[in-house]
């Protein structure tokens, strides 16, 4: 066997190995992207909620509930119950009363959640008190 023949065989293997490493690296980078996007989304959702709930006490109570329910992930889904969104509405489609974009818009989910807490408990602070006693609201 000549050296040039061996080089021709070895060269494609090296290219394939390099391509595999490059693909794995890109895959790891892409896998890391959703975590960053979720963080950005959570931060954005919190900013939206803070604008919609200017009272510090009510915002803090709302935030504590949302943190425990969804971790501020507007796409959070409870696999067991089907509850969805920042405030884990059940059924999720109830949030459509706040807007047709309820599946994707944190502001719509916050509006619905705030309306729910105000109508059922009187305020987010009262909803938080109930949540602390029952671990749900």
Q: Could you explain the architecture of this structure?
A:
Helix content is 67%, strand content 0%. The chain is mainly alpha-helical. It has one domain (3-134). Helix 1 runs parallel beside helix 3 (106-121), helix 2 crosses helix 4 and helix 3 packs across helix 4. The longest helix is centred in the N-terminal third of the chain and has 50 residues, at 3-52. It is globular and about 30 Å long. Mean pLDDT is 81; it is low at 3-39. This is Transglycosylase SLT domain-containing protein.
Short description:
By secondary structure, this protein is mainly alpha-helical.
Keywords:
single chain; 137 residues; mainly alpha; 67% helix; disordered N terminus
Helical stretch tally: 4
Could you tell me how far the N terminus lies from the C terminus, measured between alpha carbons in angstroms?
Answer: 76 Å
Beta strand %: under 5%
Low-confidence parts:
3-39
Signal peptide: 1-37
Keywords: Signal
Organism: Streptomyces fagopyri
Domain Transglycosylase SLT: 62-126
SSE blueprint and pairings:
Blueprint: H1 3-52, H2 56-70, H3 106-121, H4 124-134
Helix pairs in contact: 1-3, 2-4, 3-4
